[in-house]
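Here's a chain:
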Amino acid sequence: MASLTRPRILLTGFPGAFFLITVKQAPFFLIFVFMKLKRTIGCILLILCISCTKQPASFFILHTSDLHGRFNESMAGLAGYIREQQTLYGKGLLLFDTGDNLQGTPGLYYSSHVDTTEKHLSSAFFNWFPYTAVTVGNHDIEAGIKVFSKVYRQMTMPVLSANIVHKSSGEPFFIPYHVFRRKGYKIAVLGMITPHVTSWVPEWLRPGLDFHSITASAQYWVPFIQEKENPDLIIGLFHTGARAEAAEPSGKDNAALWIAENVPGIDLICYGHDHKPTTHYILNTKRDTVWLMNPGAHGKKLSRAKVVLYPRKQKKARITAELVDVAGLDPDPGFLKALEPYFQKAREYEQKPIAELMHTLESRTAVEGPSRWLDEVHRGQLELAGTDTGIRPDVSFASALTSDAVIEKGQLYMKDFFTWFPYENSLCIVHMSGDEIKQYLEYSCTRTAVINFDTAAGILYTIHRDRPEGERIEIHSMADGQAFVPKKMYRVVMNSYRAQGGGGHLFEGLGWDDATAASRIIWGSQEDMRTLFMQWEASRSPFSADLLNHWKYE
């Protein structure tokens, strides 16, 4: 009871509790408080000390994309510039690439499909620098799972792609992202690819793989990285173009701008795919600045960003970006020496004689009327497709795959067939009605790019330039004189890119979806078109590439 009469001191406001103590206990409590405060002050001083030692840091980002196998002497200047930057900035420099490196040159094809025992040319190129991280492009998948799996296993840097997944489990096939720790800062790098790979690459080249929407994947992975890693900077390595067009059945193809605007958290997007060199910035939905940069194709330019990071995110990362023209830069002799064995093999391979051509071929003539360049493609497609099954095509669709190329008459070498057929497309026969054939050609008339202006053979038709869209195509008959029947089903041969929706002819022009396109394919070649045509032209050498004259303008 006596204790109830002792004077008491009420202390309030001490963190976490209220204390009621006696005056007699006060000295001991004050010692306790002092010790606690001493420890707290020590922790605060330690934190302040650490904060003071972590200074703002500058980083430099170099970025290539869409090199398409140009790993030859033309890259020596680029190599020299990158090595110079690495010497200057050391760990402060990060070197990235955003894909499309396993298609485009005879030397690359040789390394992928002929001399398969040596280290791959692409692996040797990227390991030489070495790159900090790379992502995957649609033309890398086009090389086939056996090739790209081997190449990426041989690379010493992380290969990133979050939206390429196993169909069976939904788990990413590649590493989704990687966190680099530099100068006390955490830099997270996320890789992704356009989902339209499914529209361009046959499934037998990508068995068991699915390609998720790049926009939905960004909306999932960016918050995931923020929560789990709490990085100081997030960089996107995206193989997708810039413009945010309306989504197609497989999702947006070109989505870099959409992601920058609508997925807060990304600071810098390095992208490729559309071959349009640029650097610029936008404000996202939270009014934060997001930089985007694209170096274009074939190593002619390099995109470069300077990034300044601040301790404990006291300030927003400061970023500026520019394009570097590598033409005329001093070559790196070490690069030339290291890759010379590959260059030599490539030169020997591309100079292999194939057949003799009796007329010069020019790709630009494909949009001007019947042309030798394209009519020879039609003739070959009608001749080669379905020979192993007896399913023969009635009609051929094709376009020139390059806009301004010339193949001179005379001896044709391996390199000439890479000019004529630059992509590893196969041949497909597709079931289409007469009405759909007409509608397909109507859509083709609206395409301005040479690669998307398809003409036909096997039917005789006229393109009326002065008529409104949808009424320009007049089909007269089959090429053999039989009637063309709008409701009849015909067998149409085209390349695999078109047969799976590439260019929009089937999806936009006819309103098909992925499932419809897949159900209409009744035959597909197991060899690429280039190989088929090389064998065919060699068997009929010398060949004249005569005009078919199956269509005309009026």
Notes: The chain has 16 helices and 28 strands. The chain has three domains: 2-52, 54-346, 352-553.
